[in-house]
Amino acid sequence: MSAADNATDDGNDTDDSQVPAWARRTAGESRWAATAAMVGILVVQFYLPNQFVAGPRWLVPGIGLTLMLILMVASPFRLDREEFWLRRFSLALMAVLGFALVWSVYHLVLGLVNGKVSDNPAGLLSSGGGIWLSNVLVFALWYWDLDRGGPAARAHARKPYPDFLWVQMQNPELADPDWEPQFPDYLYLSFTNATAFSPTDVMPMSRWAKTLMMIQSAISLITVSLVIARAVSVLK
């Protein structure tokens, strides 16, 4: 029987204080850190040049804000409500943000290769930096929303086996028993993966986690190398 089963089984005398928070039922994570990241992505999308934006400038931010408001009304404070439709809306929002990122990266790379991107180095670096920041935030949200079934499933300890192996899991004697991964942890994971182009101290365990980290590293490497090379060429 897993630690999560012990923690949630009413007939078991296991002391919950001896089970780490990530493996037992908890109150659920506050939604505000992840919501701030979503808003950040939508703001970046709104201010990117037209050539890097899918459709009218308002389209992606409008769809994203609509889905966000629905999720916030349904679960305004803590992410512990498990319902089929809520999960589908959450995944739909992740898909919208991911599509916007892929569109921006594709058109940035295409413009750099065919020479149609602006020769203004400040504009190029700001656009490239905005897209790189979107890469970090989008993948942080994907890791956060998919790890062990998402924040609500983690709050209920539905899945005992982690998709990411955190340092606190490997060294529980050095960690607060109430520690469990929350959005800032996934943001750290995404940032280090986007800058080091490889795992640092958080190891992907499942195949989907390894695949996503590989894709993010590739996007970050391509974006950074091409934007810097073009900016240096323009500056001569």
Describe this structure in words.
The longest helix is centred in the middle third of the chain and has 31 residues, at 84-114. Helix content is 62%, strand content 3%. With 236 residues, the chain is mostly helical. The model is unreliable at 1-14 (pLDDT under 50). The protein has one domain (27-235).
Strand order of the largest sheet: 1-2
Query: Helix and strand string, N-terminal first?
Result: HEHHEHHHEHHEH
The DSSP helix count reads: 9
Helices and strands: which structural class?
mainly alpha
What is the structure about, briefly put?
With 236 residues, the protein is mostly helical.
Please specify the SSE layout and strand pairing.
Layout: H1 3-8, E1 29-30, H2 32-47, H3 59-74, E2 78-79, H4 84-114, H5 121-146, H6 151-155, E3 164-165, H7 167-170, H8 183-196, E4 203-204, H9 207-235
Antiparallel strand pairs: 1-2, 3-4
Spell out the key features of this protein.
236 residues; mainly alpha; two-stranded antiparallel ribbon; two-stranded antiparallel sheet; 9 helices; 3% strand; globular; disordered N terminus
